[in-house]
Amino acid sequence: MTGTTIGFVGLGGMGRGMAGSLLRAGHAVRVWNRSPEPVAALVAEGAEPAESLAEVFAADTVVSMLADDTAVERLLLDPALLAGARASLHVNMATVSLALAERAEELHAEHGIGYVAAPVLGRPPVAAAGQLNILAAGDGALLARAEPLFAAMGQRTWHFGDRPSQANTTKISVNFLLACAIESMAEACALAEANGVRPTDLIDLLTGTLFPGPVYSGYGAMVAERRYEPAGFRLPLGLKDVGLALDAGAVATVPLPFGSVLRDAFLDALAHGDGEKDWAAVASVARRRAGLPE
Amino acid sequence: MTGTTIGFVGLGGMGRGMAGSLLRAGHAVRVWNRSPEPVAALVAEGAEPAESLAEVFAADTVVSMLADDTAVERLLLDPALLAGARASLHVNMATVSLALAERAEELHAEHGIGYVAAPVLGRPPVAAAGQLNILAAGDGALLARAEPLFAAMGQRTWHFGDRPSQANTTKISVNFLLACAIESMAEACALAEANGVRPTDLIDLLTGTLFPGPVYSGYGAMVAERRYEPAGFRLPLGLKDVGLALDAGAVATVPLPFGSVLRDAFLDALAHGDGEKDWAAVASVARRRAGLPE
Amino acid sequence: MTGTTIGFVGLGGMGRGMAGSLLRAGHAVRVWNRSPEPVAALVAEGAEPAESLAEVFAADTVVSMLADDTAVERLLLDPALLAGARASLHVNMATVSLALAERAEELHAEHGIGYVAAPVLGRPPVAAAGQLNILAAGDGALLARAEPLFAAMGQRTWHFGDRPSQANTTKISVNFLLACAIESMAEACALAEANGVRPTDLIDLLTGTLFPGPVYSGYGAMVAERRYEPAGFRLPLGLKDVGLALDAGAVATVPLPFGSVLRDAFLDALAHGDGEKDWAAVASVARRRAGLPE
Amino acid sequence: MTGTTIGFVGLGGMGRGMAGSLLRAGHAVRVWNRSPEPVAALVAEGAEPAESLAEVFAADTVVSMLADDTAVERLLLDPALLAGARASLHVNMATVSLALAERAEELHAEHGIGYVAAPVLGRPPVAAAGQLNILAAGDGALLARAEPLFAAMGQRTWHFGDRPSQANTTKISVNFLLACAIESMAEACALAEANGVRPTDLIDLLTGTLFPGPVYSGYGAMVAERRYEPAGFRLPLGLKDVGLALDAGAVATVPLPFGSVLRDAFLDALAHGDGEKDWAAVASVARRRAGLPE
């Protein structure tokens, strides 16, 4: 194993594509995943399978893309694992809380391992194409080391400061804005429809004039057509991300009234059985409130 | 005066440019305004001054662009004026309530005058350039008659149905979405700043990735840089438009929780002296709630 | 007709009992109502029927108890009526907006008629028993003149200042607090039930300890038992009163976030067909949001 | 030491009075507290000091009154402590989350120890007087064993079911209602004041008519007079309790829009330096929103 081996943890929809991008860029990648299938798929693309997390952390650099705080905490914030690691850099690309980012940074420092945060914008197909937008924060020298990896996985790296949690703050803020855009369109479409305007006509106008771009056109179509399956991003994950924003606000005493409305709307959607749908299904709540037909 | 004369009422920032566009397209335009200065300016461009609203309504077609319900009600929904009118079509391009649209349509019908609604998207420079987006609704034959005027004033006409109030619903919905976008960015920027991320960095990321377009870049810059003067659209007008959305929701029993948050935030901004600033100054409320420095 | 005749306008559920209380206290009362039945009933108790509002305003003092701003505006704020009046005092006991109170005071002053506001607390049976709480505001000498009438109709008169609108502000604030208490219990009962606690047990605890009194026990029982019919106070009237609070807040730039939540909840209830139920039926919204069975 | 010894953990403002009540009722009480002063005070009243938590859990019955989930978790949910315990009953009287209640019940069961929840209503002087209201839930036989202790500490025991978390749900719901009442009065007082009505006049009316009882009179006076020090219950504890309600709602998918408003208001108050004041100081937020002088 050469010094350029990358350990990669977490081969879900996103991680699979990201690890694949690293492979295609010529990096040696040693992969680990809780379930074996994605490992096999990546081994077929040239990756080396790791038998354990310890083997992953024997690489120079570890990249991780796990689901949430709980997974990161349980799998990676393990003092024994970090104490035995040969890795000198861990790039955590998951969307995690600020509290976790700070704890992780501290714990890695205790074991002499650099820690940077690099959450991403983009869905699985974008990850597979190596076209993510990467939101990076942490020590400048460490980020410079990580940049070739970012270049393989993303179309652009955006920098937000030298504390890893700054990138997590940014990612949480972006997801908050996505949720706000969905709820805004949900309320506007309910208002339009109840007053005799076709939601699709409203969305066409919006995206053709003031609100171009993927959020208003993509989610707008879903909201206007009430098409929430299959889920691109499941509703409970949306609630989780709204919760990350509210928690980040609580720590810094930032009231987020839109965030509060969002939280209530997501709970309402879950209470009505939308847990397996795309998070845009939160728009069904605005319709139900107004007594519009399901 | 030929049959093609257009009467034009309301030469504010928007109306002035719209009447100018009609002139430049070769229409004969007879103009009226409460204060005389804009009349003189347009006469210099070739318009004919009207001494009274009756003279305006002696034209075939009347186009009006007044400030709000109150102005429309007082100046134009005057049974004596309408009874004496020779005009057979009134194109109301103002942002008014659904209730007013319906009353206006009815009253015009009683006097045998066609009434269509055609509120617009675009600020004064866009109006001056004849590049507005025009949201039209009303009887199809009447809209066909108005289309040459729309072509002179706008880059595109969007249709929303055969009841005039449908265009007003749409316009109110769009302004509601603008206000939602501002408040969303205000909360996100407060969250970012309180957690150590520069708001301008967040806005750059947004507009460079998921949220392109004039709303997020234009208002985003204002919010991130806290630059609310000079006002492009004054804050009390923003409150008025949020109120139009809430009223439209009340009539159709559509709860708008984001709208309710917006209303409270606009009142808060007014209570703190932001009445002369751009409506993006509502973002100062999110900062104040969080105890961030003014 | 002696100088002590009282003209009374508005014999709804409340006004009927109030006029009856005046009669029982020995006052001469001349009554008017839009529909004739309540007039006949009061004539049987000794009242004199008025053929017109002009006859009512020929009495020294007029007491009115109409449904809302619209009724007051249409029936009583009539310059011709006031110009011809012999009355020198009008006691308006209805729940009206601050704007109407101010306009009424001004218009009466123009015609040399004193105007005081005296909205009440209490439901029809309390009015019938002459046990209302009377919230009075206006010129001190006028209130002194009205006090014998208040003594006949109420158990106590509370004073709030020398501008009539101060009493209306107070009444609006009290109704706002009633609505807040209902929504609070609605949310708490939904929370309790969803976590396995019987709402009636919660309400028993509340009223037996920290929250004694008619509001928590009366509305608490309705909410816990989901018993909203027959309506003591219809839901659309509740929405109207919440609207009065929001309007009063808008004029004085007072954001009322609880008021905003209430408005949305009342609209939601109306959208789901609860318009004929007691306003406590707004509690059904909290249950629906949570997916609890109807 | 006989079989009737009670181990008591947590001698804060509440616990001190409760342990004193047990002593006065003739119970043998062995006390433990993190800081030594309250221990000394109770020893002077006849208590036996415990050197360790193990000594407390060597009693037959343990009563605990700790500050929050964190304290309970760290001090009492210790498998080693529970494994070595002789106690067969733990009565947890603190206000804790439903999640903690469930975890605690399970963990105690694993070690053969009965666990019941019995949070209380009442402030320190009420605790000292043995006049608390006790909200009890858990196994019936265990509650029967605890009843003599409840009788010593409280004026009445209220039962909410056989799962301990039901008592915690109830306590959380009551505190939620207290916070709602405070915010309601805060908004109403801001509305009244901004429209020229003295808040004290409004509160006098409320407590003299529809809203008798300690909550509206006690907190009403604090809100109307803006008197938030010394703190009876500190504002961050209020935020914590609102958070418990929101968390309980999240688990059971119960949206709590009033709770969301409360959370934002408490954060706003904290952001403005009110962390050492009574939680009624959240009312200062309603004034600030309205631009009323501090």
Features:
homotetramer, 294 residues, alpha/beta, Rossmann fold, N-(1-d-carboxylethyl)-l-norvaline Dehydrogenase, domain 2, 2 domains, 6-stranded parallel beta sheet, 14 helices
Short account of what is shown:
With 294 residues, chain A is of the alpha/beta class. Chain A folds into two domains: 6-162, NAD(P)-binding Rossmann-like Domain (Rossmann fold, 3-Layer(aba) Sandwich), CATH 3.40.50; 168-289, N-(1-d-carboxylethyl)-l-norvaline Dehydrogenase, domain 2 (Orthogonal Bundle). Chain A contains 14 helices and nine strands.
Total strand count of chain A, please? 9
By helix and strand content of chain A, what is the structural category?
alpha/beta
Over the alpha carbons, how many angstroms does the gyration radius of chain A reach?
20 Å
The name of the CATH topology of the largest domain in chain A is: Rossmann fold
Indicate the mean pLDDT of chain A: 97
Total count of domains of chain A: 2
Order of helices and strands of chain A: EHEHEHEHHEHEEHEHEHHHHHH
Shape of chain A: elongated
Poorly predicted ranges of chain A:
none
CATH class of the largest domain in chain A: Alpha Beta
Order of strands across the widest beta sheet of chain A?
3-2-1-4-5-6
